[in-house]
Amino acid sequence: MLKTIAGVALAATGTAAITATTALSQGANPHAAGLVGLRNDGQAIAVKQRFGSGALLAWDKKTNRFVSASTRRGHKMVTLFTPVKDAAASLGTKKTADLVRWGTRHRRSTTAPTTTTPTASAPVTSAPPASPAPPPATASSPTPALTLGSGSVLFDDTFGSLNASNWNTFVTSNAAGGAPWNSNGAGGSGEGNASSNFDADYNLPSQVSVTPDGLALTAQETPTAGMLGQTPATFAWRSGVVSSYNHFQFDGGTLEISAKMPSGNGMWPGLWMLPGPGASQGDNAEIDLFEGGYSMSGANPDDVFAWHLHSSSGVAGGNVNTGVDLTAGFHTYGVKWVPGQSITWYLDGKQLAQTTSAQATIPNEPMEVIMNVQVANSAASSWHPTYDSSTPTSTSMIVREVKVTSS
After folding, report:
1. What is the CA radius of gyration of the chain?
2. What domains appear along the chain, each with residue ranges and CATH number?
3. Following CA atoms 290, 217, 213, 333 in sequence, which dihedral angle do they give, to the nearest 10 degrees?
4. Residues 80-92 pLDDT 10s
């Protein structure tokens, strides 16, 4: 999570180029004079870098207006627009043929999931599946059983209670020696760091509970005193995390997690892995089984499955538009890890992506399991929706089961 966001964070520079909205009639394509639609996220990032987020507009079908992209809801407005002059200056061209004069794509994709590699990641590519994966089951379908893995069962928790022999209620890692990150001295922790902080939340043990549906990691909009590095800080949100450090670690196999994701702009759920106490080189690798809520052209952020591998050779990963609202029901998130050889990502038993040793350095060391709900602040706005007035003041990721098998 940390290495991923540090690699794609962008700071807005300059002044806002446009702030006015433009009203159009119902059903009209947003071809306002002097505006062009940007072709992809890379073009939008280039404009934002030069002129700030105010230079990006989005067409809101619900109100038939252009609004600031920083307030857009991903499922209502996707294509970003900017004045022709800003596009030309940012992209180094005056040929608007390099851009797109089109209306917003309002419907979710009905095609099979595809993967993309983030433009701001390190120069490591990843191999997609040999053929497009079929769409996973809809949220109304029964949750598939956790049967992706084979071999012996190494770990299995169905959360009849919060087992302190399995989980900490703070985030930690090998480099931290098992101590909470950004510790407040009373069990709190945080994922941010002093040089680049993208988190509006601070973790407290009180945000971890067990419900009839499973383990609940709850993000709640409440001003919370915490730490950022060695400095006291106040966070707008508090949230929950569990980590298996000093309780469980594994070096290769299949990890499956049955979970329902939290809803709302800014919600950033994560299922990920870091070196455990048995590793010998600090936090030299990270496997992100799943990160949710990412911005992706043409997709509702609630449908996006982001996957990454951070290693000594760089960052491999991308986003998949699943076409399924992952906040509407339970799904199974899986990763098959063959140490030194490959990592393969799955949703509901269907392969979404794969990275092999030909593309990246595949870890071969024991790793812990981490599950959390981060809340994205404005520093993450170029690649992840941030919390706003529409975000529920309390929302949870619910985890029904975590299972690890030897293969």
Report:
1. 21
2. 4-98 (no CATH), 110-405 (2.60.120.200)
3. 10
4. 777 766 676 666 6
